[in-house]
Design goal:
alpha+beta, nine-stranded mixed β-sheet, 25% strand, binds adenosine-5'-triphosphate, binds magnesium ion
């Protein structure tokens, strides 16, 4: 017989108390100087990220992602996961090392040219470091002998490093040679269903950018060497953007200049508006592929009449590390980072008084406050840092906090020692300053 063991609720171990991360201990090397190898700082997101120790240059187009930036990236990935799961996406992870065989099958081994990192294994077999994964995922699908139509749409995605030997890696994470991409691939029973999937992914991309609080445009795009017939890019308007966009002042139709709209001044959609040019950073790209890959790899499913049929595909990319840098690029000022609230590395920074100051006793209050806030609400768990560099003035630390862009800074001073203790709270987004009790602070956060 079988017994199910249930433990009484009281014995469920509670989560451990998290001590507040200490700014003095964060690995955040900020000694980077302009002109140093790998740091031709050509845009302010790159300069801010290098100078605040979020990233550190390695070889051209490759960076060390340091702890503070990685926190932000992990939050971004969680947000993307949430949206992908909401439309039925299933997360996988495919090898970065891809056999040339697959790429020859699709005809892209030659086509990719110098952008592809190619290598030989010890048996002299040819490989590449995956720049994208249409071939791999289609091969995976095709390896299933009988996929019922009832299993479709199938949406598989991954968040992995991609490798592209870019001619000009630049702007830090905006154009790297090794970068993170979220790539999703869809398999459907027919064109109609595939287009429905296509639109639902486009909608989820819009939601991701909305939730990040970014201004974005969806533009008609060329499908490049990926192929397919329908394609859109998600662009963040920005002067340093490398893509030129045409936007109709009348109907809002937008296109990348790489499409047929080139040289046009009149809108092809409404035929009355004029197209004006602007620049954007491409942060996402969607493609309806039809049967381009599924035909070549014999990616079949069994349809309702029990007959094998070729699946219709789509593919959908989001530049994870590019979104991280691009949001800093478009939201920050020249000398201070602003994060989309949802992906700020830490939500709150608590500043105790300078060592030896009149309010010295408030140091303990600050330590307790950061510990209790950081263990209070679920959304604040681990999110409260303590800037314990008490040999530095409050002013100097405030300046650092401003550059790093914590959404909230809490200064613990003389007023924290009064009978009704209060704290100076600076909301960096709005620049507003207020004095709040601990309860008021918890309410605010
Ligand atoms: P670009 O036109 O900027 O070279 P792409 O069109 O070659 O980009 P896609 O193949 O559409 O890129 O890849 C999907 C997404 O991956 C892009 O929309 C972008 O956000 C991101 N991406 C592409 N190349 C890079 C890169 N070198 N560094 C960082 N992110 C990149
Ligand atoms: Mg490219
Ligand atoms: Mg492009
Ligand atoms: Mg693209």
């Amino acid at each position: 017989s079988c017994t199910i063991h249930t433990s009484p609720l009281v014995s469920v171990p509670s989560k451990p108390t998290i001590p507040p991360p200490l700014v003095s201990r964060l690995f955040q090397p900020s000694n980077f100087r302009e002109g140093q190898e790998g740091g031709d700082m050509t845009c302010h997101s790159q300069r801010l990220m290098l100078q605040t120790g979020l990233i550190h240059p390695s070889n051209p187009g490759c960076f060390y992602y340091l702890p503070v930036a990685l926190r932000s990236m992990e939050k971004l990935v969680r947000l993307i996961d949430e949206e992908m799961h909401a439309i039925g996406g299933q997360k996988i992870d495919m090898p970065a090392l891809c056999s040339a065989e697959l790429w020859k099958k699709s005809g892209r081994w030659e086509l990719m040219g110098k952008e592809m990192f190619r290598l030989l294994d010890r048996h002299n077999a040819e490989y590449c470091l995956g720049p994208t994964h249409e071939e791999a995922v289609t091969e995976l699908f095709a390896s299933q002998t009988t996929v019922s139509y009832r299993k479709l749409p199938l949406l598989l995605y991954q968040v992995t490093r991609k490798f592209r030997d870019e001619q000009k890696p630049k702007f830090g994470l905006l154009r790297g040679r090794e970068f993170y991409m979220k790539d999703m691939y869809s398999f459907d029973i027919n064109e109609e269903a595939a287009l429905q999937t296509y639109h639902s992914v486009c909608q989820s991309y819009g939601r991701i950018f909305d939730r990040l609080g970014l201004k974005w445009v969806q533009v008609q795009a060329a499908s490049g060497n990926i192929g397919g017939t329908l394609s859109h890019e998600f662009q963040l308007p920005a002067d340093i953007g490398e893509d030129q966009l045409l936007v109709c002042g009348n109907c809002g139709f937008s296109a990348n200049i790489e499409t047929m709209e080139q040289g046009q001044t009149e809108c092809s959609q409404c035929q009355t508006g004029t197209l004006t040019e602007s620049k954007g950073i491409e942060v996402g790209h969607t493609f309806y592929l039809g049967a381009k890959y599924s035909q070549a790899f014999k990616a079949l499913f069994v349809n309702a009449s029990n007959v094998p049929a070729v699946a219709e595909m789509g593919c959908f990319g989001l530049g994870v590390t590019r979104i991280l840098a691009a949001s800093i690029e478009v939201m920050s000022s020249e000398d201070a980072i602003r994060w989309p609230g949802l992906i700020a590395p830490y939500q709150v920074c608590v500043l105790p008084p300078k060592k030896g100051s009149k309010a010295n006793e408030a140091t303990l209050v600050a330590e307790k406050l950061s510990q209790s806030l950081g263990n209070s609400l679920p959304n604040l768990r681990g999110e409260v840092v303590l800037d314990d560099r008490v040999q530095m003035t409050i002013g100097k630390r405030l300046k650092d906090a401003k550059v790093l862009g914590y959404p909230y800074v809490v200064v613990v001073g003389q007023k924290a020692l009064e009978d009704l203790p209060s704290f100076e709270v600076i909301c960096q987004q709005s620049g507003e300053t207020m004095f709040l009790s601990k309860e008021g602070l918890v309410d605010l956060l």
